[in-house]
Design goal:
The chain is 23% helix and 26% strand. By secondary structure, it is α/β, with parallel strands linked by helices.
Length: 292
């Protein structure tokens, strides 16, 4: 399927905020399929469907990541996700563990077109130090052109860096999509970061976080759809499993950018050289990932 290049006026989006079963992709995939079908029955006009970071595998499964990671785009679980996108007729963004050459794995987001065509596997570019025990950082910030618009995809901690969302916005993103496993007790930070990235770039946001616990790690939920000024269109304020649906109004974004929302237009890049320079504050480098 060739994604439409015509400007869209609005898109109905949905996310599933869920607690994945640690290390059990089959159980997680079956649940995602059930929830996706239920959402589509309730909202036949649905066009974009999103699940959280590592929603297929669970988050805190240690060495088991090397057993459940899949090669893009031909892994068995990825084929199920592709088939689900085609069955529902939706653009689908899903978090999974990606296997690569040399026993290297990535915390990735698979993006499928509405006919099931695999579009891209985005690899998280800002892994936490604990995640670097298993995952390598990705090194690219691609914009994904789909039939629901141009998506700037981020995974959890990526969104804490204003430069990532700004890179997507300057490349022409219509919609920012963040999938997360953002932990307690930092739920207020999640809310702040998602709203700020939308407002910074006058670009609407779909942010889907997981819930529940993997071992001692608890997750904060608070998934949402935000307009181009970071105001909620739909949200789940509880740290419980649930679904949310909201309409992203691209026409509102265009109108806002022509008036009050002039952040991108009013930029003065000649003043911002320090943004891309190495930090002067000392940091402790993380060890590279290795297979134990």
């Amino acid at each position: 399927m060739c994604p439409s290049r015509q400007p869209r006026s609005a898109v109905l989006v949905a996310g599933v905020q869920l607690a994945s079963e640690p290390g059990d992709p089959n159980a997680n995939l079956a649940r995602i399929e059930r929830l996706g079908r239920s959402l589509k029955r309730a909202h036949p006009e649905l066009e974009l469907f999103v699940i959280p970071e590592l929603g297929v595998t669970g988050y805190s499964i240690g060495e088991r990541f090397f057993n459940v990671a899949e090669s893009w785009p031909d892994g068995l679980g990825l084929r199920r996700l592709s088939n689900l996108a085609a069955e529902l007729g939706v653009v689908f963004v899903a978090g999974y563990a990606e296997a690569s050459a040399g026993d290297v794995i990535y915390d990735s987001a698979a993006v499928f077109e509405r006919d099931g065509t695999p579009l891209i596997s985005y690899r998280k570019t800002h892994c936490l130090d604990t995640e670097l025990r298993f995952f390598a950082n990705g090194d690219d910030l691609p914009l994904v052109t789909t039939s629901v618009g141009r998506l700037g995809v981020m995974i959890c901690w990526d969104a804490a860096f204003p430069e990532v969302a700004r890179t997507h916005a300057l490349a022409g993103a219509d919609l920012l999509v963040t999938i997360g496993a953002w932990e307690d007790p930092h739920v207020r930070d999640w809310d702040l970061v998602m709203s700020a990235r939308a407002y910074d770039n006058v670009t609407p946001m779909v942010a889907v976080n997981r819930t529940g616990a993997d071992g001692d790690v608890h997750f904060s939920g608070h998934s949402c759809v935000l307009d181009c000024l970071g105001r909620p269109i739909a949200r789940l304020d509880e740290e419980e499993d649930g679904v949310f649906v909201g309409t992203v109004d691209y026409e509102e974004t265009r109108q806002t950018r022509s008036g009050y929302g002039s952040q991108l237009r009013d930029r003065r890049p000649e003043l911002y050289a320090a943004v891309s320079a190495p930090a002067k504050t000392p940091v402790t480098p993380a060890s590279p990932p290795e297979r134990k």
